[in-house]
Amino acid sequence: MKIEGKEYRTIWYERNIVKIIDQTKLPHQFIIKELKTVNDAINAIKIMEVRGAPLIGGTAAYGLALAVQESNDKEFIKKSAEELIQSRPTAINLKWAVDRMMKKLTVVNSKQILDIALKEAKEICDEDEKFCKNIGINGLKIIEKIYNKKKDTVNILTHCNAGWLATINWGTATSPIYHAHKKGIPVHVWVDETRPRNQGANLTSYELNEEKIPNTIIADNTGGILMQKGEVDMCIVGTDRTLSNGDVCNKIGTYLKALAAHDNNVPFYVALPSSTIDWKIKDAQDIPIEERSSEELSYIEGIDEDNKIKKVLIYPNNSKAMNLAFDITPAKYVTGLITEKGISEASSEGLKKLFN
Ligand code: MRU
Predict the structure, then answer these.
(1) Distance from residue 91's CA to the centre of ligand 1 (Å)
(2) How many angstroms separate the CA atoms of 263 and 300, rounded?
(3) Per the domain annotation, does 7 fall within a domain?
(4) How sure is the predictor about 356, in pLDDT bands with cuts at 50, 70 and 90?
(5) Among 16-30, 51-65, 100-114, 185-199, the least confident range
(6) For residue 199, which atom of ligand 1 is closest to its CA?
(7) Would you say the CB of residue 166 lies under 6 angstroms from ligand 1?
(8) Contact between 128 and 172 (Cβ < 8 Å)
(9) How far apart are CA 51 and CA 70, in angstroms?
(10) Same domain, yes or no: 199 and 312
(11) Last residue of some domain: 109, 127, 145?
(12) Is the bond into 176 cis (omega within 30 degrees of 0)?
C-alpha cells in the first residue's frame, strides 16, 4: 500500500540486509530501518519496531535467514530459532514461520542453506500478501451486502492495527475496507485509539489517511455508545491467535468491543490468514498472554512544538500499573472468521470445512 503516494511492503531484503518500516516512530517520522543480524530482528520484534501477527512471522523468517547468513553452524541456527520464537509470546505466526523455516533448513546441505532460507522467507511473505488480498476479496462481500441494503456510507469499527502495516501488505481487518474503497463503496472507519501503545491512532488512522479512506479516531470506550446510536454497521478486527474452536485472542480491549457488539446486534468479524490458527491448543486459558512493561501505560510519546518526539510521564510517580497486551473473545461473540479461503463460522466445524 502507499505512503506519500509510493508503494511499499512492510519488509524486504536488499543486498544482504533486511529492511523494515520502524513503527515505533510512526506517525510522526517515516524511517526505514536496516536489520543486519538475527539479533537485530529479535530486537525489532521485542521493541515493536515491527508488530502485528503476520509481520512478526515474516520478520522471524527473515531473521532466521540473517542467522544463516551470519553462520551456517547448526547449533547457532537452532538457538536463533528458539530466541526468535520467544521474542513475543502471543502471536502464533512467529512460531509457525520459524517452524516452517526450520523444516526446510534442517534437510539441506550447507552450500545451499542460505539460498533456501532466503527463498523460504520470501515465500512466507509473498504468501501472506496473497492471503491478505484474498481476505479482502472475501470480506468485501460482507461490506457490499450492508451497502446494498443501507445505500449509504458503511461505518466500520476496528481495534488496534490489523492494517497493512501489521502484515506484509493489505492487512487483515483493513483488506476488505481497502477493497470496498477501491470498488467505490463509501466506507468510514471508527478507529479505536488502542491504549496503551495507540496502534489504532498511530498506525491504523495513519495508513487509512495515506489511502484517503475517511476515518475517525475514538477513545477505546466510545464504541459502545456509537453502537447504541446505530452508528456502527459492523466491526472487523485482527487476531494474534485463533483456536480451532473459533476463540479469538487479540489486542486487549477486543473482548469488550465484542460484548458491546453482541448486545447491540452489530456483526463482529475477525479477519485472519490461516497462519494465525493454533490447531494445537484447545483451551483459550492456555494461550500465553504477553504482559508488557507498565511504562507503556505510565509514559506517553508525542511531538512537541519543535516537532521533536518527546516522552512524558502521565501517572502519579508512585502508582502501580499493569499492562496485559491481549485478551480472549469467546467464539460465541464472533459473527464470522474472514480467511483467505472464505468466511467461516467461528467454530471447529466451520474451520474444518474450510481447512481440511
Ligand atoms: O501488540 P501488537 O501491536 O502486535 O498487536 C497487534 C494486534 O493485536 C493485531 O490485531 C493482530 O496482530 C492482527 S494483525 C493483522
Answers:
(1) 8
(2) 33
(3) yes
(4) confident
(5) 100-114
(6) 3
(7) yes
(8) no
(9) 24
(10) yes
(11) 127
(12) no
d(CA 189, CA 207): 12
Asked about 240 being catalytic, the answer comes back as yes
| Best residue among 45, 167, 240, 329 to mutate for probing ligand 1, ranked by most atoms within 8 Å of CB | 240
Closest approach atom of ligand 1 to CA 160: 10
Give per-residue burial for 279-297: e unless 16+ CB within 10 Å, then b. eebeebeebebeebeeebb
Distance CA 59, CA 196 (A): 23
**Domain tally, the chain:** 2
3-state SS of 299-319 is: EEEEECCCCCEEEEECCCCCC
Average pLDDT of span 17-31: 97
Q: Could you list the residue range(s) of the whole structural domain that residue 146 is in?
A: 137-355
Q: Is the pLDDT of residue 101 over 90?
A: yes
- Among 240, 247, 278, 327, the active-site one is 240
One domain, residues 144 and 117: no
Q: Which residue, chain included where needed, has cell 459502545? A: 224
Ligand 1: does its nearest atom lie under 6 Å from the Cβ of 167? yes
Q: Check pocket membership of 80 for ligand 1, CB cut-off 6 A.
A: no
Asked if the structure places residue 132 within a domain, the reply is no
Percent of the chain with pLDDT over 70: 100
CA atoms within 13 A on the CB side of 1: 30
Instruction: Tell me, yes or no, whether 237 and 93 share the same domain.
Output: no
- The residue from 94, 127, 160 where one domain ends is 127
- Inside any domain, residue 346: yes
271 lines ligand 1 (CB under 6 A): no
Q: Is 113 helix (H, G, I), strand (E, B) or coil?
A: helix
